[in-house]
Amino acid sequence: MTGVVYWLDMAGVIVFALSGVILACRSRMDPFGMLVLAAVTGIGGGTLRDLVLGIRPVFWVSDPSYLWVILATVGVSLVGFHYIHRLSRGFLPIADACGLALFTVIGTHKALLLGTSGVVAVLMGMMTGVAGGMIRDMLAQRVPMVLREEIYATAAMAGGIAYVVLQALGCPLYVSIAVALLVTLGLRLAAIHWQLALPVFAWVTIPPKESDTATPLSTPQKAKERVRMIRREKGKTKR
User: In this predicted model, what pLDDT tens digit does every residue of 162-175 receive, in sequence order?
Assistant: First the structure.
């Protein structure tokens, strides 16, 4: 199963790197920008995980194959740029969901191998799955998916918990991996399809100011508003 886990990790890098390439194309970035987004998405979460767990060197330094896989993904994407550019808007969330599921399982598995507690392993799995996408979205000047109302980090936590519980019960490794993948991917895809979201607790509602209204005034409206202001000023002067 060690080889299976390794290739699942590679698959996660490819899928996440591809999601970075797609976002770079939509953000009209050059090839270097595509490479940067692909790299931070593919290895960003795992790098933070290894740093937090004190693993030296981090996984892609000890095994540069991850970097070559990212370069190959970007190279193939450049060749097939026109096909990638025509992908539907829904492909990026689906690719991101697949990467989230793969990296969540890999991060949780690696943390448990190092002897961490179940809680820490779940957090490391969530960090592995979420952090790369957060960095990608921030570099592309987008609100990260994990900060939106959609079920994202919750799906990663659920998958990590499923993996930890099954391993604690003594289930075979392949069963734990399969169930954790299905839980994470199923929750995320369900959230995308049915637009599921966690409840928002807003204790105070602040009404928007007149200057902060979303609909800008048209030119005739601006002229009328200007006339009203002039009349008000004249009325104050007469008083």
Answer: 999 999 999 999 99
